[in-house]
Design a protein that fits this description.
Number of strands: 0
Number of helices: 3
Distance between the termini: 118 Å
Largest sheet: none
Number of domains: 2
Oligomer: single chain
Length: 116
């Protein structure tokens, strides 16, 4: 009994290999809706992207003209760190000042004690 999926026993190195299936000839066809979307992209999206690119270049030129070529990063960092330290000190001073007269609860207790 012979199988049609294997080669004949006459060829020694290809035993158990399947024969390729039938070849199907395909022709390329144009899809009309694809042509419309390409035309839309060429007419509207491409000019918009070009406009965005030109605006970006103008902005980068404007920015480069107004900033120094090598900004003093150490001075900028020192000023920022100083601001953070001052804000932290003000916050901690307000939290741990020990001035309990101004709190609403202590005001109520003082009024209650004064009435007695």
């Amino acid at each position: 009994m012979s199988s049609d999926t294997t080669e004949p026993s006459g060829s020694p190195g290809t035993r158990g290999r399947r024969w390729p299936g039938p070849t199907i000839e395909l022709e390329a066809t144009e899809i009309k809706s694809g042509g419309r979307s390409i035309n839309f992209a060429l007419r509207f999206v491409a000019p918009f992207l070009s406009w965005v690119s030109a605006r970006r270049e103008r902005f980068m030129a404007w920015w480069a003209a107004r900033t120094p070529p090598d900004p003093p990063w150490r001075a900028i960092g020192a000023v920022a760190a100083g601001i953070v330290v001052v804000v932290l000190l003000v916050f901690l001073t307000g939290q741990f000042s020990g001035d309990e007269i101004r709190t609403p609860k202590s005001c109520r207790n003082r009024r209650h004690q004064d009435q007695d």
